[in-house]
Amino acid sequence: MSDCIFCMIKDHQINSTVLYEDDICMAILDLSQATRGHALVISKVHYDSVLEADDEALAHMIVAAKRLANQIKKNLNAQGINILTNAKEAAGQTVSHLHFHIIPRYDQHDGFNPKFTDHQGQWDLEDIKNEILK
Ligand code: AMP
Ligand code: ZN
């Protein structure tokens, strides 16, 4: 996909700050830096999101993400890491090319807030289960 920014990055057609690269994936620093050291692991093959991705590529990428997360945590002296992926616009995906965010966490007030809203009691869990598994 020639108009895909991450395809251009993985093909080295545009510049990025590369942390890691192999045949399956590439890790770069995210331009936005949600926290200091925020990185992305992007696939070498274009998949729109995690939902369409090849299983083997995904397995490889999550291991690469784990290794880089540990390296970032250690060398930037982070206290924790969020690894996440957004799939589709409704979930906040802005670049339709599979990527995992690696977000180093320094404390709970470092500017990144992935807190879940608590809707406990609002829906019947058995109903949800039956609908998912039908
Ligand atoms: P998402 O919203 O999950 O699709 O994440 C896309 C991410 O890509 C955002 O965090 C952007 O800051 C980042 N991004 C967009 N363009 C570039 C670029 N050229 N180099 C590095 N990161 C980028
Ligand atoms: Zn792409």
Please describe the topology of this protein:
Layout (H helix, E strand, L loop, with lengths): L4 H6 L7 E4 L3 E5 L9 E5 L11 H21 L4 E5 L14 E7 L19 H8 L2
Antiparallel strand pairs: 1-2, 2-3, 3-5, 4-5
Bound molecules: adenosine monophosphate and zinc ion (ZN).
On the 0-100 scale, what is the average pLDDT?
97
Shape: globular
Structural class: alpha+beta
Spell the H/E element sequence. Answer: HEEEHEEH
CATH superfamily: HIT-like
Query: What is the CATH architecture term?
Result: 2-Layer Sandwich
CATH class: Alpha Beta
Report Rg.
Answer: 17 Å
Total number of distinct structural domains? 1
Order of strands, widest sheet: 1-2-3-5-4
DSSP summary: helix tally: 3
Distance between the termini: 36 Å
Q: List low-confidence stretches.
A: none
Q: How would you summarize this macromolecular structure in one to three sentences?
A:
With 134 residues, this protein is of the alpha+beta class.
Please characterize this protein's 3D structure.
With 134 residues, this protein is of the alpha+beta class. It has one domain: HIT-like (HIT family, subunit A), CATH 3.30.428. The N and C termini lie far apart (36 Å). A five-stranded antiparallel sheet has the order 1-2-3-5-4, covered by helices on one side. The site of adenosine monophosphate has 11 residues, from loops. Adenosine monophosphate (AMP) binds next to loops.
